[in-house]
Write a sequence for this structure.
């Protein structure tokens, strides 16, 4: 009997929905069904499929039950086939070359803060995308709306990641990290000793985004001078209307103008301290704007191309950042996540 793996099919559907920026509840239906099916003995699953009682399982609905039944019958689920035929166009030229050069992602979230999935699911998706590493960068304590991690929870997360790494395939590693808030005075929202322990530190402004330019400039420059900070996350904080798909509630009216600051001074600080500017690939951010990115390229900055993924399928958003990097002429060797992992870690250790 040539039955397919229903768990793999359900997970693939969830991945494609996330990648298309579809509503969270829709993705959840497939991830919950996958978890339910994975926990069920194979014979019980087959019996239920035969009896038509799959939808009686908690976590499985009519749509997901149909997918499971089709998988078990050895057919590609209709839902999956339709998703695959409407996939986006492929990358070309310089953008494709950049994408192929990327070895990992330096900005991602799990359900320890405001992400939707456990760390292991994020890691498995990264493995499937061919990454050599994924930097886990959950939020810092003051960002309570995003369930930022106080020091004790971050310590527990570090122990957890160490255990997960032991079980993950050879040639892949979860790197430890944080997306630390750059506070009003330019200091970083986590204990120094912990920041020093982490592999990679992304620093981002999430509060008082409308600070006046001189204040915001001081704040960013001070953070960049902090030896713990490696990468400046989504530098302007802008929100743009995501093209295609998207949560209904996240689309209309959810835009935000970029913060104002002295771009030359901020870029100068990046170059002086050897810090990287993140090219944030999220369709609702695409930060920094191309105009600023071009200035940073000319000034000799380092960069990262990151997804800021909050779900496994979003890890494939690197393509959007690669397109922008290619358009703005970002040289491959100045993108730190094209470097071998050892070189990346030497670089982050070199200023902290
Ligand atoms: Zn952020
Ligand atoms: Zn983030």
């Amino acid at each position: 009997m040539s039955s397919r793996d229903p768990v793999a099919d359900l997970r693939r559907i969830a991945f494609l929905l996330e990648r298309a920026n579809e509503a969270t509840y829709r993705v959840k239906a497939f991830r919950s069904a996958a978890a339910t099916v994975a926990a069920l003995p194979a014979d019980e699953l087959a019996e239920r499929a035969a009896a038509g009682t799959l939808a009686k399982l908690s976590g499985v609905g009519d749509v997901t039950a149909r997918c499971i039944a089709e998988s078990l019958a050895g057919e590609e689920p209709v839902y999956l086939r339709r998703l695959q035929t409407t996939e986006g166009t492929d990358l070309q030229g310089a953008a494709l070359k950049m994408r192929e050069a990327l070895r990992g992602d330096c900005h991602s979230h799990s359900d320890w803060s405001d992400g939707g999935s456990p760390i292991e699911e994020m890691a498995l998706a990264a493995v499937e995308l061919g990454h050599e590493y994924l930097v886990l960068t959950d939020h810092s304590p003051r960002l309570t709306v995003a369930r930022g991690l106080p020091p004790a929870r971050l310590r527990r997360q570090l122990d957890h990641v160490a255990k997960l790494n032991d079980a993950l395939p050879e040639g892949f590693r979860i790197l430890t990290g944080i997306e630390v808030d750059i506070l009003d005075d330019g200091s970083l929202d986590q204990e120094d000793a912990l920041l020093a322990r982490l592999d990679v530190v992304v620093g981002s402004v999430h509060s008082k985004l409308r600070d006046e330019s001189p204040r915001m400039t001081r704040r960013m420059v001070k953070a960049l001078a902090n030896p713990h900070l490696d990468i400046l996350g989504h530098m302007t904080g802008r929100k743009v209307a995501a093209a295609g798909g998207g949560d209904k509630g996240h689309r209309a009216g959810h835009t935000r103008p970029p913060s104002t600051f002295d771009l030359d001074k901020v870029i100068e600080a990046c170059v002086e301290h050897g810090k990287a500017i993140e090219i944030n690939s999220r369709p609702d951010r695409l930060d920094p704007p191309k105009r600023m990115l071009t200035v940073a390229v000319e000034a000799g900055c380092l960069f990262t191309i990151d997804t800021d993924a909050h779900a496994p399928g979003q890890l494939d958003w690197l393509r959007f950042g690669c397109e922008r990097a290619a358009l703005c002429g970002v040289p491959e060797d100045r993108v730190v996540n094209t470097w071998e992992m050892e070189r990346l870690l030497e670089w982050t250790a070199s200023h902290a």
Observations:
- The domain at 6-85 is CATH 1.10.150.110 (DNA polymerase; domain 1).
- The CA atoms of residues 281 and 321 lie 4 Å apart.
- The pocket of zinc ion (ligand 2) is lined by residues 107, 109, 179, 308 (CB under 6 Å).
- The first strand starts at residue 104 and ends at 105.
